[in-house]
Design brief:
The chain is mainly α. It contains 23 helices and no strands. It folds into four domains: about 90 residues, no CATH class; about 60 residues, no CATH class; about 100 residues; about 90 residues, no CATH class.
Length: about 475
């Protein structure tokens, strides 16, 4: 991707309010008139086309230096976004206040500096910006030490600030430790899927020992959210779905809505955990609760007015996939078809923010859904887009192999079914995971190879049901 395409994609990634803000920001300076013209030209293109762009700008007076104007526009958009976000983002507002405090201190306006500092510290603590609170408290200690003539600050006040800073250092250390444990349990989940075998039990026990012994030891709401999230994954690894739901509900409840919807980081964490809750609710066939959680997910927005493509991917793509899963379970064919159309559209819109395993998981869901609707060509299309190297679960590869075989069988590609069966049998026998399911696959492969006509064929759905029952 070249610089020209980067600029085009950058402009089209902006929300309507961000585009409007840029135009207002750029129009304040008459020297930036060219950038507004170029911005509008690129914004109006449905796909990037250099020739059409030059044709449209031929009377603009700057087409000869178009490359340099594009570079300038790119950096001007970045600059406008910094101002836009600073007006909306609480963390950035705190950083700006820190600069103001430093400016007042350098001009020896100690009392004004100290008053602003005290207010800013209170604000940082209220919105749980622990890192910033520690920085501000450290500044306050520094200013007290250097303000020999500032008689109003007593030794008791210094000790109070020192103790408060240490408290927030402790809070931050606990939170960072929990985040580290959270990453480890996610890695273990991706590696093992469930607790089976001595190595898995040993590794997961070591991770569990890193957690605080009791929830009473938790020092902040964010720590509580992370702690219960980790406990929910431990429960799921043991396949105790009800306990997973209980812990996930506690994790979701730990988020303060007055804070998380002002911080993109916290809202991203919240929507990720809420997504897990929906998955668990669907697994227990609690579709009413799942729909309520999906509705909550769709309603999430940053109070600051900023857009977030990551959060939007959950609100639209993941929400539609969960609805798809529910409608499949309920056998509502019309709603499956309608929701599937939306899911395909959302995939194309949000695929750039998906990790490779997540992208594969979405493709697998779409392939399976088209298969259920007996649109085998479309199912095969999504199967062929999958990258098995990035698959995070051997069980998913097994299901994919089965889906691939049956799809080719339905399309009448019998020779390909035979060669794939031979290849899969060889690959699966080299693996040590879920051997019972592998044997079911091999039996089914043999059955498919023997079937040469519709009369001999077992229906694909009954094959799937048989395999799932035997392999579970």
């Amino acid at each position: 991707m070249n610089q020209n395409e980067n600029l085009y994609l950058f402009i089209h990634s902006l929300s309507k309010s961000e585009k409007r803000y840029f135009k207002i920001y750029a129009s304040h300076n008459s020297k930036q008139k060219n950038q507004v013209v170029l911005f509008n030209a690129l914004n109006n293109q449905k796909t990037y086309d250099e020739k059409k762009l030059k044709q449209r700008l031929k009377n603009s007076g700057f087409v000869q230096r178009l490359s340099s104007e594009k570079v300038y526009l790119f950096h001007l958009i970045l600059k406008s976004l910094r101002f836009y976000q600073s007006e909306k983002n609480l963390s950035k507002q705190l950083k700006e206040k820190m600069n103001d405090i430093q400016t007042l201190f350098e001009r020896v306006l100690i009392k004004a500096c100290y008053n602003l500092l005290s207010k800013t510290i209170k604000h940082a603590i209220e919105i749980e910006e622990h890192n910033t609170a520690i920085e501000l408290l450290s500044l306050q200690l520094r200013y007290i030490r250097h303000s020999v003539n500032f008689r109003e600050v007593s030794k008791e006040k210094y000790s109070e600030v020192y103790a408060l800073r240490n408290k927030y250092i402790e809070i931050l250390n606990q939170l960072n430790s929990l985040k580290n444990t959270s990453w480890k349990i996610y890695e273990a989940y991706s590696k093992y899927g469930k607790i089976e075998g001595e190595q898995a039990k040993k590794e997961i026990k070591q991770i569990a020992n890193e957690l605080p012994k009791s929830e009473t030891k938790l020092l902040s709401n964010e720590s509580r959210a992370e702690y219960f999230y980790i406990k929910s994954i431990f429960a799921y690894l043991k396949r105790d779905i009800e306990l997973s739901i209980s812990y996930t509900l506690k994790s979701v409840a730990s988020f303060n809505p007055d804070i998380y919807n002002r911080s993109e980081y916290l809202l991203r964490r919240y929507v990720t955990i809420l997504n897990n809750l929906i998955v668990f609710q669907i697994k227990t066939n609690d579709f009413i609760s799942a729909f309520e959680s999906i509705k909550k997910m769709k309603g999430l927005n940053l109070r600051t007015g900023q857009s977030s493509i990551y959060i939007d991917s959950y609100k639209y793509l993941y929400a539609s996939l969960h609805e798809l899963d529910i409608y499949i379970s309920l056998g509502e064919t019309t709603k499956i078809a309608q929701t599937l159309t939306l899911s395909v559209q959302y995939l194309e819109k949000y695929k750039k923010v998906l990790t490779a395993p997540s992208y594969n998981a979405v493709l697998f869901i779409l392939a399976r859904t088209y298969f259920i609707l007996e649109n085998f060509k479309k199912a095969l299309y999504y199967i062929n887009r999958l990258d098995l190297i990035d698959f995070d679960s051997f069980e998913k590869i097994q299901k994919l192999g089965l889906l691939n075989l049956i799809t080719h069988y339905e399309l009448g590609n019998y020779e390909l079914v035979a060669s794939l069966s031979k290849r899969y049998k060889s690959e699966f026998l080299q693996q040590k995971h879920n051997e019972k399911a592998i044997l079911v696959f091999i039996d089914l492969f043999k059955l498919l190879q023997k079937a040469k006509s519709k009369k001999q064929q077992r229906t694909t759905n009954s094959c799937l049901i048989t395999c799932q029952k035997k392999g579970s």
